[in-house]
């Protein structure tokens, strides 16, 4: 049986890119797997790890002759990469990505995709706090959701082909509007990261509590925040800037809710606290039931 | 060799109490292990699981004849339990606890401890989001810190005996002032829990994003917060009320830092974000190096 793709190009070999290369190889979904990365050190690791059949320094060279190009770089690079890759997309080729913000991704990429090619943006809701080509693994996407956000009028066959690829590597696939995606992810992913970065930052600023004490007694909850706050700095800088409106809206709601809880603590309103804590416990049961725990 | 204790009484058989019973049994640190729990259902489980040699409905009955009594109930119960247990403490007996707030614990318990007995407050910085007698396990305290906060002038032999007990079950032991403990834990444990409860609450209030979408796409960071926000509601209500000042101070600092980040996002100040995100990454390395990850 022929593989579904002739040549897949992965642009950016970090956690996501290297995981895709690994699982694409395992599943044999392309006759040829090529990679591109701007970092010579990363390219050398790709060769050492045998992750791709060819490694290029530029996205344009990797895109030549590919029937699927997936951008796995921070969202802030998409404008320049779109301009570079767009003109080199072959007839029928699909440009996709793995960016965590979708409206900005569409805005950056769509103008560069020629009429003979297709844009099918994707966001695999999966990850770890680790970065780089060594951090990836073939099972990263198993049981996780991949959200596709094609514009209306996008070639249905191209969308179906991308959806089938993600299902093949173990993901569930959902399609939604880019703006709705950005609102949902603002609360389920971007705000948690913003808060984790904030609280770890707050802790490091303390004069009285030394850094070593904070680390020593981190098992009481703090260590989970340090894990999240160890995520790639550039990737997350770009996410917050690209999803500004939705993130600020969610941060504002959080601040209001936190203020209410602070007030309840100050005035000793135990019932208010307990009622919320019971409600949040139910959500955890939902996460476990949905096998996303 | 004689066990170090004749009779240890565990009051409250939840995650911590049942873990202590399990590891105390494994290590043979007492000739007799007794448990007390106000819930008939919990007492029945203690019998079914064979966690103790005897099970009582009241702390007072369990304390009779014990040379060590450890309160493993929410901090809000300490005042009443102190009044009940104090008069029944035998000469030389030690009253201890596992509460997450220490100044309030000392205030509640110290007045009830007769001159012939000793108060050695303890806080094992270990736990999971699960509750109840079935959730405990013997290795919970291994490699974690236990903080002792005895008042000045406490019998040194009693403190050493409690410290040796925690070391025996795998913990590292540190001694500090109750007030300092409460400040350190406010940032490393209490604030993370408060924020996790808040953010999960914020998510459940959204009109646009349904609860099912929030759960479905929780793998982007949110699920870690749902885990923390699944912790015991009564225990955490009591912690926030008992450590009010330190928690409010830390929440205020967090709010200021979050406001600064919101402003950086609004004005597109990428360098501010990136600089913080690199700093927080270093803290994660510290947590990993300290084997608390």
Question: Main attributes?
Answer:
alpha/beta; 6-phosphogluconate dehydrogenase C-terminal fold; homodimer; globular; about 290 residues; 9 strands; 3-stranded mixed beta sheet; Rossmann fold
Give a summary of the structure in a few sentences.
Chain A is of the alpha/beta class.
Topology summary:
Two copies of one chain form a homodimer.
Chain A lengths: L4 E7 L3 H13 L2 E7 L3 H10 L4 E3 L2 H5 L4 E4 L6 H8 L8 E4 L5 H7 L8 E2 L2 E4 L19 E4 L7 H13 L3 E4 L2 H27 L6 H6 L5 H7 L4 H10 L1 H23 L3 H20 L4
Parallel strand pairs in A: 1-2, 1-4, 2-3, 4-5, 5-6, 8-9
Antiparallel strand pairs in A: 7-8
Helix pairs in contact in A: 4-5, 7-9, 7-11
Structure description:
The structure is a homodimer of 293-residue chains. By secondary structure, chain A is α/β, with parallel strands linked by helices. In chain A, 51% of the residues lie in helices and 13% in strands. Chain A has two domains: 5-176, Rossmann fold; 180-289, 6-phosphogluconate dehydrogenase C-terminal fold, CATH 1.10.3660.10. Chain A contains twelve helices and nine strands. In chain A, helix 4 (78-85) packs parallel to helix 5. The radius of gyration of chain A is 21 Å and the shape is globular. Chain A starts with a strand and ends with a helix. The relative contact order of chain A is 0.11. The model of chain A has no long low-confidence stretch (mean pLDDT 95). At the A-B interface, helix 7, helix 8, helix 9, helix 10 and helix 11 of A face helix 7, helix 8, helix 9, helix 10 and helix 11 of B.
